[in-house]
Structures are given as structure tokens and as C-alpha cells.
Amino acid sequence: MGAYQFKIVIKGSKPPIWRRVLVPQGITFEQLHQIIQAVFCWSDYHLYEFEFRTMGIRVRDDRVEEDFDMPGTISSGTVIDELVADTKKFTYTYDLGDNWEHTVEVEKVLEEDTEPYARVTKYKGDVIPEDCGGICGYYQLLDTLADPQRLAAYNEENGFDYKEWAESQGMREYDADLVNEALKQLAFPDGNMPEQEGVKLADIFRFYDKESITELAKRHGLSGYSKLKKEELIRKTAEYMLCPEVMSEYFVCARDAEIRLFEQVLQGEGHIPYVEQENMDYLYAGGYVTMEMSPELYTVADDVKQAYEAINTEGFQAVRGRISRIGDYLCAANALYAVTPVSLVLEIFNKYEAKKLTEEELTDAYRILYAARPEVELIEGRFVDCVLAEQKSYDELYSRQRNVPYYIPNQQEIEWMADNGGFLMSRELQQFGEFLIKGLGVGDERIPYILRDVQSAISVGSDLQTVVDELETYGVIFRGQEELEKFTSQIMDVWNSTRMVLNRGYTPHEMVTRGFSQAAEPRRNVQKIYPNDPCPCGSGKKYKKCCGKKR
């Protein structure tokens, strides 16, 4: 059900006394009157009216006899949508004697609301006694209570305690929680609230900024989103993402590990171990999963659950599993070679998999994967890393690789690279991680990220200084020549055991032992350090006055 967001201001109040209220659509003016009474903590002792002055329409209290009706007067049994939807503000007057006049501003129209009853979301000003003589009488009351001499004279003249009378009339500090509880009781006097529909995808999107929702609309291929206002963008994006065709196209590209964790969250087990959270990234980026930060739990909207149940057939999972497996081989090939002939992917896949792969099935799977999670681009019969494709530098790399045979990974390496975004752990990397922890005092939690970045830099041919720069971004510094030399020894072992793109997946050590040419040679000092350069140990001193002085 939709709702209106009203800002109800007591006219003549300075500073303004107001309440911001969410009011369900489809109610009558009589019900709106009752809501306003509860919002201002009044008792409905007096008559009221609503007035739409630009339309020349007045909504009368049905307690007024029809003989007093004027032209343009309608019943309070009228549904508010008939008038409110076409105006920006109207007037509500309560107690036609004291004349409590309110301006009701229509701030927003919400397509969906999370609760089926009215509630105050923000306010200014305390509770006002309704029988104090209108807004002028209220300010006279405040002036009297603030002046002890005047208050004493008033009490003596009238024979009662004016302050006690004001408090008996409800004058007090405003309590929005208490008011909202009263509004709930007003909507459901028997206490039987209708069963809630649960959290919807659109409800979650309302916590996002417009730019984030726009990115989701763009990611899933929704057209015409650029001109939409936020609420309409939320509604259309959520509806579009829940379409079976759209959802199937995205989920069919999810890997087995991602589906396993998603279905775990569906069962209410939203706490994902830190080491596995990366497998939530794809569905999180697609907007189908969200995360509550305190506590750190992944959640899925109820309508997403229902939509997934509708597409989650045996046939769908068979197709998804097959595409996932093809994607694993593409990921591993891209990590090893960056430029991979279609024929080589077919050769490696069919070497290990029982159900053989054809070129047609491979290219069809590639097109499906490319639409949702592009990692490689098919160019002239070769799968090219997307970054190289964008830079148009793949031909240069391919020509440099030409005289080197392709390293063929085993199944365990393929699975490891697919599970870890191309990263492949080695004994030398493990030892390097231990050196960082024990030798340099690096925290355990940073080691996986450091090792990935170091391997990534080396595998694409970066020099030693680039590796040092990568480490510095994690706060790793060398406190002297001894540490620097230990690091150099360790990193050379890592270097020689890293599978390199230029070597088509072979390590420098393998290239030498097998007698291959054009090996990517380990380089200790690709960038020479001169006496006046900053010392690599991170001290901030010149090299000649720091580690260079000890050589």
C-alpha cells in the first residue's frame, strides 16, 4: 500500500510547531482527522473541516447538520486520494471557535510503505493544550507560566493553579514513540495487525543513494532509467530485476560456491566466514544480496527469495553449473596467458571433463558470461584479458609470447585459480607470507591481500620497485639493510616460482630448466637506486645516509 508524507504545521506558531507524518493511502477524511488528533495529542471534542482553497472545496465534519452545508462542501467520508493526489497543500481547522488552523503540506507520495498505519517520523514543538484559546492563547499561557508574579496573580484571581490546569490538559514534552503507539492502536483497535508481507527489494533500495540504484539499473540492462526520479527508479529497477528472464540471466553466471552461499543465506544463515565473503561479491554487486553491518549479516529480500524459487529448477541449475565450469577454465586461462586461443581452452577443458565442449557451446557460454561478468573478450579467435583489450596491447603481448609453449595446468590449479580470481598459492608465497608476519610484524589479516597483489604484479612482468611500492601501500617498510636483504632473497624465490603471463604460464625457473627462450628474468634492481634517492627501507632519509652507508 502507498502512503503520503505530510508536514502538518500549526499556523501562527513561531518558531513553527509541526509534525511530519506518513499516512496510508485509501483512508477517508474522517480517518485523517482522527490521525491528526492523535498526532497532536488532542481529544476530538470539537468540530473540524478541511479546505482545498485552490479547488474551492471544503470537507465538512459529518456531525454538522446538512442545512449548514455551503456550495462545494463534501462529506468527511470521502477518500482523501480524490483530492490530495492533485494538490501540494491544504488546510485543516480544528475547533471552529478557538480556530486551530493547520497547513498540511504534501511532501511526498510513496508507492509502497513498510507499515499499514500512520506514524510520526519527525516533529518540532511540545504538546499544546487544545482548550487554551488557539495559538494566541497558547503563547499567553507560556508567558504567564514564565512570569512567577503574573502566574501568582492569575491563580489568585481565578481560584485555581494555572500550571496544574495546563498539565491536566496535556501540556508536556512531545513523545513520538507514545504517539506512534497510539496511531497503531487507532488503526487496529482490536490489536490484530495484518500479517506483514516482509522486506521487499524496493524497501532495501530506499536505503541506497540514487547513484547506486542507477548503477544497478545499468548493470541489468534497464532502459530509460536516466530521467526517473528516485522513487520511480527504485520501483522500476526492483520490478525489472525480479523478472524471471532478467534474474535467470544474472544467476546463470553465478559460480557453484556463490550459489551455495546464497542458498545458505536464504535459509537464514547470513553469517559468512570472512575467508568466503569474496564469493558473495557477485550477487551483492547485482543487488540481490545486501549486508547488515551490525551485526555483519548477509540478507535477501523476501520477493527475491520468491523469485529465485521460481527459477530454481533442475534444468536451470544444470545449465548454470555447466556455464560455471566453462567460466572456471576461462578464468584460469586468462590468469596464465592473458591471450588464449579458443582451441587451447577447448583442449584443456576436454582433457579433464567427461562431457566434451564444442566451439559453439564455448562461444555461447562466453557471450552469456560476458554480459554479466566480463573478464575476457573474444577477438579474432582468441580470448583476451579485458584490460588488454581496452588498451589494445594484446597483439604486442601475443607476439612476445609466440616462441613459448603453453603451460597446461592441472585440475587442482584450475579450481584454485577459479576460486581465487586467478590467484595461485605456492610454497614460496607461503614462506614469503611467514616472513612478512614473523620478520616484519605484518598482521595476519593483511597477508592474503598482500600475497595476491604481489603475485599479480610479478605475473604481469612488473619490476622489483613496483613490488616494493605495492608493499608500501599496506604499510610494509624495511627498517634497515638486513631486512631489505632478507626481503630481496625471499622475493627472488617468489619471483622464480610465479607463473608468468609473458611465459604463457611457465615460471622463470621452469623456463630455464626446460631450455625455453624469452624467459621473464628475475630482476633485483630494475630501477637503480642512486645515493641521493629516498632509501627503500622507508626511513625518509637519503639512501647514502641510510642503508647505503652500510654497504
Automatic annotation (TrEMBL):
Any idea where the Plasmid pRiA4b Orf3-like domain is? 3-180
User: What InterPro entries does the annotation carry?
Assistant: MM3350-like_sf, Plasmid_pRiA4b_Orf3-like, SEC_C_motif
The name on file for this protein is: Plasmid pRiA4b ORF-3 family protein
Higher taxonomy: Bacteria, Bacillati, Bacillota, Clostridia, Lachnospirales
